[in-house]
Amino acid sequence: MKVEKDVRIPMRDGVQLAADIYRPNESEQVPALLAISPYGKELQAQSLTLPPQARPSALWNGAIEAGDIRAVVDHGYAHIIADVRGTGGSEGELVGNYDSGGHGEGKDIYDVVEWMAEQPWCDGNIGMIGISYFATVQLLGAAEKPPHLKAIFANGGHFDLYELGYHGGILWLMPRASREGRGGDSGVAARNVKSKSEKVYTTEEYQERIRKRLNDPDIANWSDFVHLLHYPNRHELWMDFLLNPHDGPFWQEGSPMSVAHKVDIPAYFQVKWGRGWTVEGTIDAFNKVNGVKKLDLQPKPPMQERPFHESHEEMFRWYDYWLKGIDTGILDEESIQMFVEGENKWRGVKQWPLPETEYKTFYLRPRHRISENPEPLGAEQAPPDGFYQVPLTVTNETQSVKWKSDKFMEDTEMTGQGALYVYVEIDTDDTNLITKVYDVDPYGNRQLVTTGYLKASHRELDKSKSEPWKPHHPHTRSEPVPPGEVIEYAIKLYPFSNVFKAGHRLELELSCNESISDENAQLLPPDSYHLPSGRATTHKIYRDKAHPSHLLLPIIPKQD
C-alpha cells in the first residue's frame, strides 16, 4: 500500500487537521473511508502489527477502533485516519465531548470529506468507518450533508450523550477510562482540550456545581472523584460528566441523537447485545434517520476485539453497493437482522419493536418466587423482602435480593424491551436501583439477559413519552426520597432477545451496587461499572396485594 503520514487538511476556520492516508498501490482513483477520533492516528496503526485481543485480555485497548487498515486497502479503498481538532497532530481546540461546546465535529467531518473528494487518488465516493467514538461522529458528519459522503456504517456508537455517562441517572465510570486512559485503555491523545462546562457556565456557576458534587454522599465516598473536583483542570472531558448529572440542553445540544433526523444518506447500524444502553441508543438512532437503512443486533460477547476488525465483510458488501455500484444483494434482506440469544439463530424482521409482541406480567412473590399470578395477601401477611447495603468504604460485599420463576415448560422467546415496576421503602434520601435479569439453566448457571438502572431521586416519569414497556424518565432534576415512604419505581429494562429454553428459569436480581470484577464485568471495557451508593441504606421491597411489584416482559408468540 501507499502510505502518507501527517497530511495537513485545512478546515473552514483555518485550523489544520492531521491525517494518515493508506491507499492501494495502483494509480487509479478509488473510493475512500474516513475514520476520525481523538484517540490518535498513530494508535490506529497498531492494526498493522498487533494481533486482535478480546476482553478480558490485559492487552485489549478500547481506543484502537478505526478498523483493519490492510483489509480496507486490499479491498480497494483508501483508508484515511484523522485526529479531531485539539488532539494528536491536529491544531485547534477540542471543547467538550465530541466538541459539542466548540466548533463541532460535524463541520470538520464535512470539510475533511470534501477535501478527500478533491484528491487525485479519490473517485469522489466516500463513506466512514470505525466503532464507538468513530461510529458516534458519523451521525454528526452525515447530518451536515457533505455532498460526497454517500453512506455511513456505524457500529457500537453512543448516540445519546447523557446516556454515555448516566444510566437511569446513575453515573457510569467507563467514559473516564476511554477519555483519560485507565485499565489498559489508551484514552484521548490530548493536545488542547477544554471542558464544555467551563465555557457555558460562569465562574460562580462552575464552582457551585463543584460544591454540590462534593456534598453528594456517592461522590464523597469515592476519594478519587473528590480529588478531581478539587483539581478540575486535568481531566476536562471527564469533568463534564462529573459536573452535569442531569439531562437537558448541556447534553442535548451537539448530541448525535438530536440531529439523527437530518441524516438522509444510506445508514447501516450495528451493535452487540449485552451493552443495553448502547443497544437502545442504536435502535433509537436507526428509527430516527431517514432514507435507506439497516440494523444488525449482533450476538454476545458485548465488546468487539481490538484492534477492531470484525464485521468488515458486511461493511464491504454495504460500501461496494453504495460506493462502487456493485450489486452485492445487501438490500435483498430484511432491514433488521437480529441474533436471538438462547436459540442462537439469526432472524430478519421488518421493524422494532416486533409488531407481534405480547407483553406479559410476572409478579414478585414471597419466598423469592416469580409468578404469573399476583399476591393475594397484604403486607401484614406477606411482609417485604429486603437488603441492607453499607458503603464500600467499609465492605467489599455487594448485597442484593433475588426472585426466581418456575421452570419454563416450553421454549419461550422474549424479544424487545421491558420494565420492572417495584415498590421500595428506604431509610435514606436516595439510593441506586440496579436490576439484572438472568437466564438460569437446570444446573444453576446464569447468563445475563438484560439490565436496568434508576437512581431513586430520578424517579420522575414523563408519562407523555412513556409506554408501559418503556417508562421514560426525563432526568432533568433530582427529588430526594422521603425516608420511610413506600414508592413505586418504574425501571426501564434495556432491549434484549433471548429464548428461555424448556427447563430454564428466569431470575431477577435487585441491588444498589454491582460487582466490578464478576464474569460480566470482565467482558465490558475498563471501569464499566456504576458509581456505588455512598449511603448506608436499608431497602424494603414490597410485593403484596397493595404493592404488586412486577416485571413486564415482551413475549414473542410461537409461529404456527
In short:
The chain has 560 residues and is α/β, with parallel strands linked by helices.
Radius of gyration: 24 Å
Percent helix, as a range, is 10-25%
Looking at the structure, what is the overall shape? globular
Low-confidence stretches at least 5 residues in length (pLDDT < 50)? Answer: none
CATH hierarchy, class of the largest domain: Alpha Beta
The CATH topology of the largest domain turns out to be Rossmann fold
InterPro entries: AB_hydrolase_fold, CocE/Ser_esterase, Galactose-bd-like_sf, Xaa-Pro-like_dom, Xaa-Pro_dipept_C, Xaa-Pro_dipeptidyl-ppase/CocE
Keywords: Hydrolase
Domain Xaa-Pro dipeptidyl-peptidase C-terminal: 316-552
Biased composition (Basic and acidic residues): 460-470
Structure, explained:
- Pfam families: Peptidase_S15 (PF02129), PepX_C (PF08530).
- Residues 316-552 form the Xaa-Pro dipeptidyl-peptidase C-terminal domain.
- It comes from Alteribacillus persepolensis.
- This protein has 560 residues and is α/β, with parallel strands linked by helices.
- The protein has two domains: 2-193 and 238-333, Alpha/Beta hydrolase fold, catalytic domain (Rossmann fold); 358-556, Galactose-binding domain-like (Jelly Rolls), CATH 2.60.120.
- Helix content is 22%, strand content 29%.
- Helix 3 (105-117) crosses helix 4 (133-143).
- It is globular and about 80 Å long.
